[in-house]
Amino acid sequence: MASPFRPDVLKGKVALVTGGGSGIGFEITRQLGLHGAKVVISGRRKEVLENATASLRNEGIDASFVQGDVRKYESCEAMVAGAVKQYGRLDILVNCAAGNFLALPEELSSNGFRTVLEIDTLGTFNVSRAAFAALRDSGAGRVINISATLHHGATWFQAHASAAKAAIDSLTRSLALEWGSFGIRVNGVAPGPIRGTAGMEKLAPGAGGALNDAAVARIPLGHMGEKEDIALACVYLSSPAGRFVSGHTMVVDGAESLHKEQIVPRAMVSSVSRGVEGKSRKVGIGGSKL
Ligand code: COA
């Protein structure tokens, strides 16, 4: 899809994207860069970061990387310092680093639960906290927290990640409240099923065939999302078009999280409904029930 945004809409901005070396994080970085931002990615694996940075530069994007682990606060300070040292400022922080796997809660170890909470929730707090002064100094700081829809209701085999993402959405609201007076907007994006991601491979193993059809059948828009659907939501939230939006987590899932089993076939709705109303009208007019 050709971007509907002006290619210079983020010109002069500097963005840091955690988990920006691969998957959705990489596409977010790419789209921020294609719309004019200078970008810094962070992650744990140096080779992944090197390859991602080279690929971004090939597209003409001014990109660099800082290796680090969002679970360690000093690492987060180094990420922010790296961005500021390289480009002189920081305007946009996207918290996209995440860890996940399928697990039965009765089999998941305490350390497994903690690991996901530490990467997702503590990591989001750590980098946001480390970036606060730079975002405040930017004069128009933006934080975008990538969460999920797992915790809208509940999701099988995802007790750990659901808890982590619920806490992230809460943090999005709290930081929007607390940091608004510093000119910092804090929002979230909650992706649904996105094609070609580690998430789909890990959480719907072997997706394809019947499993794939079952996943798509739950999406009212009738297809999975693309990584760029998430990335362009981030461009919107980073751009001046989102200047009065803060504290909101935008669900980008084709309405998947609203899916409900359809009990009455669509074709029967009008006839069944009118039949019932006809009966009750008669009772209402002639009988003693009304
Ligand atoms: N099922 C159950 N428990 C698991 C697990 C799985 N598939 N994978 C890891 N764990 C548990 C480990 O057993 C360990 O607990 P223990 O010490 O009680 O045995 C704990 O989680 C930490 O695992 P470890 O591998 O030491 O942590 P890590 O920091 O190296 O890895 C993960 C973190 C587990 C999230 C890893 O999958 C990861 O980093 N993945 C990359 C990012 C990612 O998953 N992205 C997907 C987004 S949907």
Bound molecules: coenzyme A
| Main sheet specs | 7 strands, parallel
Q: Could you give the order of the helices and strands?
A: EHEHEHEHEHEHHHEH
- Helix/strand-derived category reads alpha/beta
Would you count the extended β strands for me? Answer: 7
Helicity, as a percent range: 40-55%
**If you compute it from the alpha carbons, what radius of gyration comes out, rounded to the nearest whole angstrom?**
22 Å
Please give the order of strands in the largest beta sheet. 3-2-1-4-5-6-7
Mean pLDDT rating: 93
Pfam families: adh_short_C2
EC number: 1.3.1.124
Protein name: 2,4-dienoyl-CoA reductase [(3E)-enoyl-CoA-producing]
Catalytic activity: a (2E,4E)-dienoyl-CoA + NADPH + H(+) = a 4,5-saturated-(3E)-enoyl-CoA + NADP(+); a (2E,4Z)-dienoyl-CoA + NADPH + H(+) = a 4,5-saturated-(3E)-enoyl-CoA + NADP(+)
In short:
Its EC number is 1.3.1.124. The protein has 290 residues and is an alpha/beta fold.
Key structural traits:
single chain, 290 residues, alpha/beta, 7-stranded parallel beta sheet, 9 helices, 47% helix, globular, disordered C terminus, binds coenzyme A, NAD(P)-bd_dom_sf, NADP, oxidoreductase, 2,4-dienoyl-CoA reductase [(3E)-enoyl-CoA-producing], EC 1.3.1.124
Could you describe the 3D structure shown?
Its EC number is 1.3.1.124. It is an enzyme of class 1 (oxidoreductase). This is 2,4-dienoyl-CoA reductase [(3E)-enoyl-CoA-producing]. The chain is an alpha/beta fold and 290 residues long. 47% of the residues lie in helices and 12% in strands. It contains 9 helices and 7 strands. It has helices spanning 23-34, 46-58, 73-87, 110-138, 159-179, 198-203, 209-217, 227-238, 269-286, and strands spanning 14-18, 38-43, 63-67, 92-95, 142-146, 185-191, 249-252. Strands 3-2-1-4-5-6-7 form a 7-stranded parallel beta sheet, sandwiched between helices. Helix 5 links the parallel strand 5 and strand 6. Helix 1 (23-34) packs across helix 8 (227-238) and helix 3 packs parallel to helix 4 (110-138). It is globular, with a radius of gyration of 22 Å. The protein starts with 13 loop residues before the first strand and ends with a helix. Bound molecules: coenzyme A (COA). Coenzyme A binds next to helix 4 and helix 6. Coenzyme A (COA) binds at residues 98-101, 103, 108-109, 111-112, 115-116, 198-199, 202.
